[in-house]
Structure prediction request, 156 residues.
Amino acid sequence: MDLKPPTPRLELLCHLAVKVAPPQLIGATLSGERRVIPITGGRFEGQRLRGEIVPGGADWQIVTTDGTALLEARYTLKTDDGALIYTRNVGVRHGPPEVLAAIARGEQVDPARYYFRATPSFETGAAKYAWLNRIICVCSGVRTKEEVLLDFYEVK
Prediction:
């Protein structure tokens, strides 16, 4: 018998529009430039889940000397039917220095000019959404002045 692992495919889980406040610049640390970007709300929409992003989360970032942002966002999703879903999204954003500088100034930049990918994971006690506890996801993002736009994909 010739066994081969199945080839993964991606299925769109949902679109997120995450509203963010201006960064809190902590400063240079041993790891790099530390900044915290508060999450102030937003929405998510998909075939199997939709709702709001609860204010109060944040993205704790380290920016390396070459401008690469190491991302770790933690926030709560609240579905339209009231379920709470803890979300942790770890990733990386990098690109040419002039592109990263334009993003930092709040300019709209073509997302094809930089790399912004992450791996969201979920925890929930809501029986209806318990399947989220057991899936692998990846996402692609776009940074605007006041929002982070994310497409979450389930790896099938």
